[in-house]
From TrEMBL:
Molecular function in Gene Ontology: ATP binding; histidine-tRNA ligase activity; identical protein binding; RNA binding
Coiled-coil region: none
The name this protein goes by in its record: histidine--tRNA ligase
UniProt KW keywords: Aminoacyl-tRNA synthetase, ATP-binding, Ligase, Nucleotide-binding, Protein biosynthesis
Record SUPFAM superfamilies: Class II aaRS ABD-related, Class II aaRS and biotin synthetases
Residue ranges constituting the Aminoacyl-transfer RNA synthetases class-II family profile domain according to the UniProt record: 62-417
Amino-acid positions noted as binding L-histidine in the UniProt annotation, renumbered to this chain: 131-133, 158, 174, 178, 327, 331-332
GO CC annotation terms, alphabetical: cytosol; mitochondrion
PANTHER family reported for this sequence: HISTIDINE--TRNA LIGASE, MITOCHONDRIAL, HISTIDYL-TRNA SYNTHETASE
Catalytic activity: tRNA(His) + L-histidine + ATP = L-histidyl-tRNA(His) + AMP + diphosphate + H(+)
Record carries keyword Transmembrane: no
Class of enzymatic activity (EC top level): ligase
Gene coding for it: HARS2
Top-level taxon in the UniProt lineage: Eukaryota
Length: 506
C-alpha cells in the first residue's frame, strides 16, 4: 500500500474533499439557500446595458392634479358651501371610499356598469362609491337611526367617458346635504331647495333656474302613455339624458335600444314639453289621462304644497315645474330637482361656458329600507352640489381676468438686513407662531434683505418684521407694510399686540 505522501496530487485533493464534505441531507438546503440568495442578488443588480422602460408620466383619464392656486379657489368654494349646510343645522359625516359591491349594484341598476370594482383582497368584493347617498342610507340602517340632518364632502368615482370641457370627471368631489326622518310633507323638501338657492346665489355664478318634478308624476305619465311597468326605470334613465341629448336622440334610444313602441315614445314627447309653475300643476290636475292616475295625483298635490312653501321662502321665481326632468337614479321616489345656469356671463371674445346642471337632488323614501333586515322605512330628501362644474366655471373666469391668487395665508415675514441673525429670527418667529400668527422666514443663514422683501411682494405677504443690530440694541423691532413700504419701530414686548391689531383692521 503506497504511503499518503506518495499519492498523486489529484488523488490527494479528492480524498480531502470527501473527508471534509458534510452529509448530503444537510448539504442540500444550504446549496438551495445560497443559490436563492445569489439569484436574488443577481436579479436585483442593474444590468450593464439595461435601458429604462419607455413610458409616459401621466395621470389616469378623467382625473386631475390640483395646483396650489386651484386649491385656494376650491377651498373657498367648499368653505362657502359647508358654512351654508351648517347654517341649516347639518352635522358632518364621513363614510368609506368603497363599499361592498352587492350593496351598490342593486341600488343603481341602470348605472351599475359605471362602478369601479376592486380586486378581491381579503374575501370581500368591493366597489368604489358611486355617490354619497347610498352610503348614507346604509349608515342610517346599520346604526338604526330614524332621524338625521347631515352633510358630507367627499370623492366619488364613475367609470364613464369624461368630458373635461364641461367639468365632468371620473373622479370628482360631491357636497351632499340630506334630511332623514318622518316629517310633515314638503317642509324638508322646501328647505333643500332654499339651500340650493343660497349656495348658487352666494357663489355668484350668474342667473340660474331650478327645475322640479316628481317621480310619481313621471311614473304616472309613463303608465298613461303605455310604457310597460318593467321598463319604467330604463325609460327614465333615457329621459334623464335630455340635458345632454336632443329629444330625437333620446326617442331613438327609447325605441331602438330599449324596445319602446314609437307611438308610446311620441306621447311621452308631448308631455315633456310642458313646463311652468303652479298654473301648470292646476292644468295637469284636469288632464284627462294624467288625472286618472293615483300616483300622478299624489305627486301633483305635493308639488302644489311645495310651491306654497317656496313662495314663503321667497324663491318661487327661481323654481320651474318641468315634466322633462327625470333624474336617472333608481332610488328616487318623490320630488326631484336640478339646478342649471341660464347663462354663464362671458367677457368679450369668450365662448359661453356650458356645464349642464350644477346641483341636483330629490326624495328617496325607500332606500334605507333596502338595507334594513326588517324593511323599516326612513324617508329621506337631499341635494348634491356639483362642485367640479362650479369650480370649472370659477377657474375659467379667473384665467380670463388674470387675477393673481395667493397660495398661502402667511401674515408676517421675519427678515433681517445683516448676517449672523438666524438665532434671533428663530426666536422671533417662534414667538409669532405661539401667538397664533401665520409667519414665514427664509431657510438661509444669511439671506439678502432685498431677496426677502421681493419674496413678500411676490407671495402677497402683507407685513414684514425686521430685526438687526440697531434694533437689538434699542429693544425694538421694525414693522414694515409691504404695500406702502412704510416702517415703524415697535417695542419688542408690544410687537405681537401691534401685529394682531393691524391684522384685525385689514
Amino acid at each position: 500500500m503506497p504511503q499518503l505522501g506518495l499519492l498523486p496530487r489529484r488523488t490527494w485533493v479528492t480524498l480531502l474533499s470527501q473527508l471534509l464534505r458534510p452529509p448530503r441531507a444537510a448539504c442540500i438546503p444550504a446549496v438551495d439557500c445560497h443559490s436563492q440568495v445569489a439569484e436574488a442578488l443577481l436579479t436585483s443588480q442593474p444590468k450593464p446595458h439595461q435601458e429604462k422602460p419607455n413610458f409616459i408620466i401621466k395621470i389616469p383619464k378623467g382625473t386631475r392634479d390640483l395646483s396650489p392656486q386651484q386649491m385656494v379657489v376650491r377651498e373657498k368654494i367648499l368653505d362657502m358651501v359647508v358654512s351654508c349646510f351648517k347654517r341649516h343645522g347639518a352635522k358632518g359625516l364621513d363614510t368609506p371610499a368603497f363599499e361592498l359591491t352587492e350593496m351598490l349594484t342593486e341600488k343603481y341598476e341602470e348605472h351599475s356598469g359605471l362602478m369601479y370594482d376592486l380586486k378581491d383582497q381579503g374575501g370581500e368584493l368591493l366597489s368604489l362609491r358611486y355617490d354619497l347617498t347610498v352610503p348614507f342610507a346604509r349608515y342610517l340602517a346599520m346604526n338604526k337611526l330614524k332621524k338625521m340632518k347631515r352633510y358630507q364632502v367627499g370623492k366619488v368615482w364613475r367609470r364613464e367617458s369624461p368630458t373635461i370641457v364641461q367639468g365632468r370627471y371620473r373622479e370628482f368631489c360631491q357636497c351632499d346635504f340630506d334630511i332623514a326622518g318622518h316629517f310633515d310633507p314638503m317642509i324638508p323638501d322646501a328647505e333643500c331647495l332654499k339651500i340650493m338657492c343660497e349656495v348658487l346665489s352666494g357663489l355668484q355664478l350668474g342667473d340660474f333656474l331650478i327645475k322640479v318634478n316628481d317621480r310619481r308624476i313621471v311614473d304616472g305619465m309613463f303608465a298613461v302613455c303605455g310604457v310597460p311597468e318593467s321598463k319604467f326605470r330604463a325609460i327614465c334613465a333615457s329621459m334623464d339624458k335630455l340635458d345632454k341629448m336632443s329629444w330625437r336622440d333620446v326617442r331613438h334610444e327609447m325605441v331602438a335600444k330599449k324596445g319602446l313602441a314609437p307611438e308610446v315614445a311620441d306621447q311621452i314627447g308631448e308631455y315633456i314639453q310642458c313646463h311652468g309653475g303652479v298654473s301648470l300643476i292646476e292644468q295637469l290636475f284636469q288632464d284627462p289621462r294624467l288625472s286618472q292616475n293615483k300616483q300622478a295625483l299624489e305627486g301633483l298635490g305635493d308639488l302644489k304644497l311645495l310651491f306654497e312653501y317656496l313662495t314663503l321662502f321667497g324663491i318661487a321665481e327661481k323654481i320651474c315645474f318641468d315634466l322633462s326632468l327625470a333624474r336617472g337614479m333608481d332610488y328616487y321616489t318623490g320630488v326631484i330637482y336640478e339646478a342649471v345656469l341660464l347663462q354663464t356671463p362671458a367677457q368679450a371674445g369668450e365662448e359661453p361656458l356650458n356645464v349642464g346642471s350644477v346641483a341636483a337632488g330629490g326624495r328617496y323614501d325607500e332606500l334605507v329600507a333596502t338595507f334594513d333586515p326588517k324593511g323599516h322605512k326612513v324617508p329621506c330628501v337631499g341635494l348634491s352640489i356639483g362642485i367640479e362644474r362650479i369650480f370649472y366655471i370659477v377657474e375659467q373666469r379667473m384665467k380670463n381676468s388674470f387675477k393673481k391668487v395667493r397660495t398661502t395665508e402667511t401674515q408676517v415675514f421675519v427678515a433681517t438686513p445683516q448676517k449672523n441673525f438666524l438665532r434671533e429670527r428663530l426666536k422671533l418667529i417662534a414667538e409669532l407662531w405661539d401667538a397664533g400668527i401665520k409667519a414665514e422666514m427664509l431657510y438661509k443663514n444669511n439671506p439678502k434683505l432685498l431677496t426677502q422683501l421681493h419674496y413678500c411682494e411676490n407671495t402677497g405677504i402683507p407685513l414684514v418684521v425686521i430685526i438687526g443690530e440697531q434694533e437689538q440694541k434699542e429693544g425694538v423691532i421694525k414693522l414694515r407694510s409691504v404695500a406702502s413700504r412704510e416702517e415703524v419701530a415697535i417695542k419688542r414686548e408690544n410687537l405681537v399686540a401691534e401685529i394682531q391689531k393691524r391684522l384685525s383692521e385689514s
